[in-house]
Amino acid sequence: MQYYLAPMEGITGALYRKAYAECFGNIDKYFTPFLSPNQNLSLTHRDRREYEDHLNPARPLVPQILANKPERFLWLLHVLYEDGYREINLNLGCPSKTVTSRGRGSAFLGECYALKAFFETIYEDELLASGKVLLSVKSRVGVDDEDEFPWILELFNAFPLSELIIHARTQKDFYGGTLRYEAYRLACEKAKMPVCYNGDVYTREDALHIQADFPQTKAIMIGRGILRDPGLLAEIRGNQRPGREELLDFHDRLCRYYKEGMSGEQNMLYRMKELWTYWGASFPGEEKMLKRIKKCTRPEEYEGLARELIGSLC
Ligand SMILES: Cc1cc2nc3c(=O)[nH]c(=O)nc-3n(C[C@H](O)[C@H](O)[C@H](O)COP(=O)(O)O)c2cc1C
Which of 8, 32, 36, 274 has most ligand 1 atoms within 8 Å of its beta carbon, as the pocket-test mutant? Predict the structure, then answer.
């Protein structure tokens, strides 16, 4: 089984991936959060920083594109090819309003004819048609209902996608609610390309359950589970979990990279507090300390509190 780190806009960016790879290095594939080309065919500086640093050890890295216009998608595909990338991922999963209101991400799944035409057009491009660049898709199982999934799967099967990553929820489910295992089973049985499972893997048992129930699964992508517990993958793989010193090192690197890379200590504080909304789950009984971290406004005070909390681990 392979394990991927999920792309998470604002969280698993280049600096998080770098610190994670340096400290734990047990991920088979990393993904950038979505890169969204604008109508002038350009990217923000922030988007470019997601894939331009070839010294970042978090490799292999697959850039993810968010687009529903073939010309924008193809423009970025060629930019990424020139930069050395040979696999690209298309985002058909994002459920957030800012993305779906413009027909992108998971909303594109509801536009069956437009989506088919999009794939037909992009596969006419030489890079995809010749297989010089592989295209994988990260998708939900429908917009409103998983009944939509058989048709969506048939559409994916009509194109030579290199991999299908399924977050087993609909757009409407957002990030909660029961997982749609039957729709994922259909992907395992009918998809012509390798399938990757994504959604709510928080423990070793969760990962074992996916492997046992869906043996066709080639990879498992994990997001929140790793943010909550940076030692999760070591545990799933049957390796020794990182101890207090390794977790402190991970934390300190992250702080350092955010300070250096995000112009200023306040940005570091903002990012780290967001991370703690997940990581806090690894510290049961420490609600008081977690509240102090949440309320903290001074970067040095934050670093002291977080180090104390991680240092309290046995
Ligand atoms: C804050 C946040 C940002 C996300 N950003 C992206 C993104 O940029 N691209 C993407 O494909 N999915 C994105 N996702 C979805 C995750 O990649 C993943 O599919 C989802 O969290 C379910 O997996 P998990 O239960 O392992 O976290 C995001 C999710 C969250 C909560």
Answer: 8
